[in-house]
Design brief:
Strand content: 15-25%
Radius of gyration: 23 Å
CATH architecture of the largest domain: 3-Layer(aba) Sandwich
CATH topology of the largest domain: Rossmann fold
Helix content: 40-55%
Distance between the termini: 65 Å
Order of helices and strands: HEEHEEEHEHEHEHHHHHEHEH
Oligomer: single chain
Length: 322
């Protein structure tokens, strides 16, 4: 009996050392089923009485990247970046006040302008002790990020730009109703903006211009709809839509920053974006010399459909410049 058991054990060990008919090297035997994942931490930091939620991943000793989200999203839009790049970089993705999991203070206590959003995020980065970092910007991330960059040009090591506009030629046809709001804010022009907040309108923002809508996670627009359904959310976001005209007025200042400081820039742009078409990406070539230029056949949230290609480009670009 002992002899039979010994033979069976030997057969088991031999079979365990093989896979698909091939012998597994000794150094792989203990790790073949091991899965390495980069943990993401979900934290909050008090910034002048407003709790700013943020996602954090990677070793703080590594080069830092600050990920600034767009409308109507939150740090959730950068989940693929956080998962993929935390092995080599320190990643921080904050939610603006009124967005994501950050506090949604009343308009009686917080002014919802892009100046103030940028001020809050700048203070957040100060509290985090970040003195040098790359920026990743998308949509609203551009006006927030460029305000921070022009205030602290010495801190910006590089810019990853995914449909973050800084040129008038980059404002697409989808701005028509917003421009009417700028001309005359009243009940009629505000009402014309309301479809943006509907579930169908939010889904359109994520799926318009993509080749295959089935690759876009529907949790994205459902999360946004939940947050935009909170009391006073429409009013706050209409305030920001109205204030966006002040971003346009600052475009020349941001362009001057680019010309003078020449931050290395990676462009990863969805060309079918109705808000910020590819003409906005092309415009950066006028002012930035060190530019890695990439256009994708997708929409506003290019990471949803082209995440793999964009992340590959990001890793190559960041390894070169950080």
């Amino acid at each position: 009996m002992k002899k039979i058991i010994g033979i069976a054990l030997g057969i088991t060990l031999v079979m365990g050392a093989c896979k698909n008919g091939k012998t597994i090297p000794e150094n792989e035997k203990t790790t073949e089923n091991k899965v390495t994942m980069n943990p993401i931490y979900y934290k909050k930091l008090d910034v002048n009485g407003v709790h700013i939620a943020y996602r954090e991943a990677g070793n703080p000793e590594n080069p830092a990247i600050v990920l600034l989200h767009g409308f109507p999203s939150s740090s959730h839009q950068y989940r693929k970046v956080l998962n993929a790049l935390a092995d080599n970089y320190y990643l921080i993705a904050p939610d603006y006040p009124g967005f994501g999991n950050s506090d949604f203070p009343s308009t009686d206590t917080y002014t919802y302008t892009f100046d103030n959003l940028a001020k809050t995020i700048d203070q957040f980065l100060e509290l985090k002790g970040l003195s040098e970092y790359a920026l990743m910007i998308q949509d609203y991330g551009a006006p927030v990020g460029f305000r921070i960059a022009t205030a602290h040009p010495e801190r910006i090591t590089a810019i990853v730009n995914q449909n973050g506009n800084a040129y008038e030629e980059g404002l697409g046809e989808a701005w028509a109703t917003t421009k009417e709001l700028w001309k005359n804010r009243n009940a009629e022009t505000e009402k014309a903006m309301l479809p943006v907040f509907s579930l169908e309108g939010l889904e359109w923002q994520y799926t318009h211009g993509v080749r295959n809508p089935e690759v876009v996670n529907p949790d994205t627009w459902h999360l946004d709809y939940l947050r935009l359904s909170r009391p006073n959310a429409h009013k706050v976001n209409l305030d920001l839509f109205y204030d966006y005209q002040n971003n346009v007025k600052l475009y020349p200042k941001w362009q001057q920053y680019l010309r003078e400081h020449q931050p290395p820039m990676l462009i990863v742009w969805g060309k079918n974006d109705a808000f910020f078409p590819a003409s906005g990406a092309e415009a950066y070539k006028k002012d930035v010399k060190d530019i890695d230029f990439n256009i994708y056949d997708t929409g506003h949230f290019a990471l949803e459909e082209e995440g793999e290609a964009i992340l590959k480009k990001m890793r190559s670009f960041l390894n070169q410049h950080l």
